[in-house]
Amino acid sequence: MTTVESGRRSTALAAVVLVGAAVAVALGVYGRVHDPALKPLFLFGFSGMLQFKTWFATAALVLVVVQVVTALWMWGRLPGAGAAPGWVGPAHRVSGALAFVVIMPVALHCLWSLGFSTSSPRVVVHSVAGCVFYGAYTSKMLGLRLRTAPGWTLPLLGGAVFATLVVVWLTSALWFFTRSGLPLT
Ligand code: HEM
Fold first, then answer.
1. How many angstroms separate the CA atoms of 143 and 104, rounded?
2. Are the beta carbons of 169 and 54 closer than 8 angstroms?
3. Res. 168: pLDDT tops 80
4. Which ligand 1 atom is the nearest neighbour of the CA of 58?
């Protein structure tokens, strides 16, 4: 690879990461400066916002685990599984698209209805992770289009999407499941 090609490759990669960082910061700023609506837009039949968001976030986590398993399989890194059959690629894309659709109404309610809260360390970590999740997601989607990106780009960005969603789930849904006296659905 020539020095010019290598320079272009680094610039493209830096741009992808910077756009993702800008998305994360923009969401955080919006969450912090707007007045939280403090009401739900819809509940999908659940008794409250907490219940609806918890179950949707849990469904998203399951779908993202499917994403990680199918990605490892496609990369030939799933122990004992051999080469990935043809349906694994589409399964990866469909589970990713579904996870995005399931997460969207949850994040919308978090941002619009509650905003970036600093009421406790758990909630701060949750709010930051929620914003970083969307930044990492943006970078990963853009990274898919970088034909010249180094081989570690997608595993790293995909890993960041997964890791931030796990943190979001641990600091919200898991917290809800450990409460007593709240209706589960
Ligand atoms: C990846 C996207 C996100 C998911 C899946 C998610 C999921 C959830 C869930 C399930 C809850 C209910 C449990 C609880 O109330 O603690 C919740 C609450 C909350 N979320 Fe999110 N969230 C996301 C993004 C965000 C973002 C971007 C922000 C703000 C910048 C945010 C701020 C909040 C706040 C303030 C609460 C209330 C916490 C409390 O007072 O207990 N969330 N979220």
1. 21
2. no
3. yes
4. 10
Residue 114 to residue 135: CA distance in whole angstroms:
19
Reported as half-sphere exposure (CB side, CA atoms, 13 A), residue 180 has a value of 0
Please state the φ and ψ torsions of residue 117, each to the nearest 5 degrees: -100, 150
Share of the chain above pLDDT 90, in %: 82
128 Cβ neighbours under 8 A, 6+ residues apart: 28
- In this structure, which residue's CA is closest to atom 35 in ligand 1? 117
User: What is the rounded distance in angstroms from the CA atom of residue 111 to the CA atom of residue 53?
Assistant: 12
What's the pLDDT tens digit per position in 122-159? 999 999 999 999 999 999 999 988 888 888 999 999 99
Q: Residue 15 and residue 181: Cα distance in Å, rounded? A: 48
Mutate to test the pocket of ligand 1, among 120, 172, 176, 184 (most ligand atoms within 8 A of CB): 172
| Nearest-angstrom CA–CA distance, 51 and 73 | 33
| Residue ranges covered by each domain of the chain | 10-177
Instruction: Give me the DSSP letters along 124-137.
Output: HHHHHHHHHHHHHH
Name the residue of 46, 54, 100, 114 to mutate for ligand 1: max ligand atoms within 8 A of Cβ.
Answer: 114
149 CA from centroid of ligand 1 (Å): 33
Q: Which of 170, 172, 45, 32 is nearest to 112 (CA)?
A: 32
